Amino acid sequence: MSRHLTRLALLTAAASVVLPFLAILSAALQPESNLTPRLEWPSDPHWENFATAWSSAGFASLLKSSAVIALGVVPLSLVLATLAGYGMATMELRVKGPLFALLMIGLALPYEAIVIPLYYDLRSIGLLNSYWSVILPLIGAFMPFGVFWMRSHFESLPKELTEAAQMDGASGRRVLTRVLLPTAWPALTTLGLLYFMWAWNHFLLALILIQDPAMRTAPSGLGKFVQQFGKNIPLLSAGTIIVITPIVLLYLFFQRHFVKGILAGAVK
């Protein structure tokens, strides 16, 4: 009985994820005159809706901007989160407890509370209306979770690994790069995917801090697209699929590592 309930729960969870995607795809293939698409495969799919949405919204430029920001955020965030997590997990520091508590407060800090002072600060140093005006704040905003994630991973490893390497004369940097990092690939892959997804989908900072239309990101550009084609459900659905496709493909490519990292964290 419990096995059947488990399968039913898994099927329900899978359906709750797959059905919305199928509904959006079905709506994207409907004729533009259809204002109330249903969850059914059209007899004559209008694949040209994707080309129309791509050219109307200028998704080539939007996706490029999102990729630049995401690829700028992910590597720097992973390096900083790994170094900070390693220090929090292995080093004896008097301020380690208060510093970690301060970082955890950052998890509860809403973007809405910082975006206005952030706007004036970035304008005063000449970074406003550039990719760095979004990359740097996102790195700071993602740090609390990244440090918590990597600290949990390093703390879960046997201390004998670090002690044995130190007895052999390995420095702290060598312990990290040669002993601990090889065990951290699932955790780093999962964290990198989360960082990429959050940076790609981020809307508020990109909308306020980047005013140049040529530098708009995909989510902010999609918002303008909605204002322009608010009643054209097929085109809106096609644009939505274009924006989320890179995230879906990236997840499918790293799916095994992502699930392994999530399960490892749950077991630990």
Automatic annotation (TrEMBL):
Topology with respect to the bilayer: Multi-pass membrane protein
Localization of this protein: Cell membrane
InterPro entries with a match to the protein in the record: MetI-like, MetI-like_sf
TM region positions: 67-87, 99-119, 131-150, 179-200, 233-254
Keyword Isomerase: no
GO BP, sorted A to Z: transmembrane transport
Cellular component aspect of the GO annotation: plasma membrane
Source superkingdom: Bacteria
PROSITE patterns: ABC_TM1
DNA repair listed as a keyword: no
Keywords attached to this entry: Cell membrane, Membrane, Transmembrane, Transmembrane helix, Transport
Domain annotation ABC transmembrane type-1: ranges: 63-254
Family the entry assigns: Belongs to the binding-protein-dependent transport system permease family.
PANTHER family in alphabetical order: ABC TRANSPORTER PERMEASE PROTEIN MG189-RELATED, ABC TRANSPORTER PERMEASE PROTEIN MG189-RELATED-RELATED
Protein name: Raffinose/stachyose/melibiose transport system permease protein
Organism the protein comes from: Nonomuraea dietziae
